[in-house]
Specification:
Layout (H helix, E strand, L loop, with lengths): L1 E6 L5 H16 L3 E4 L5 H11 L4 E5 L13 E4 L6 H8 L3 E4 L3 H12 L4 E4 L14 E3 L3 H22 L1
Parallel strand pairs: 1-2, 1-5, 2-3, 3-4, 5-6, 6-7
Helix pairs in contact: 1-2, 1-5, 3-4
């Protein structure tokens, strides 16, 4: 199972702690992580995953695999700048958003537009009443975010298999 984690490239201490815990919990549950591969939340989630022995994938905006943070196992160069956001969210069966600015907002929009469930943790303020598809859920803790994302991923995977 792969879950995408998106969020602030320049994260404060609180977001770094949350993202590190998310990465750790995902990896502890055998989940691979895909992210944008750079700094902030992306570094923290990858670091947490590595602490638990997990595998990390970084979808990079440029052409240099060395631009990935030190905790990315598989750097994928796109040369696509922010357009890579679509690849990040489509690679995961679900998405966890931790904090974030406009890049994260675009990733959330791409995910929801593709019926990919998004779990928010200290991110953009969405309520289910604002969405017809009810795919966005707020979590109060890293553990809750991971549990909700895994449940959503399993449900989406089963739905995808039944459609084939």
């Amino acid at each position: 199972m792969i879950i995408a984690v998106i969020g602030s490239a320049e994260a404060n201490e609180e977001l770094v702690k949350l993202a590190t815990k998310v990465g750790y919990e995902l990896a502890r549950n055998g989940v691979m992580i895909v992210c944008g591969g750079l700094g902030g939340v992306m570094t923290a989630v990858c670091k947490g995953a590595k602490e638990a022995g997990g595998l990390t994938i970084g979808i990079l905006p440029g052409n240099d695999p060395k631009s990935a943070n030190e905790f990315v196992d598989i750097p994928i160069c796109t040369g696509m700048s922010y357009a890579r956001n679509v690849i990040v969210v489509k690679t995961g069966l679900s998405v966890i958003a931790v904090g974030g600015a406009y890049g994260t907002l675009s990733e959330i929009g791409h995910a929801l537009g593709e019926d990919i469930p998004v779990i928010g943790l200290k991110t953009w303020d969405f309520t289910q009443e604002n969405l017809d598809n009810k795919l966005f859920t707020n979590a109060q803790s890293p553990s809750e975010a991971v549990n909700l994302a895994m449940q959503a991923a399993v449900k989406r995977d089963k739905l995808n298999k039944s459609i084939k």
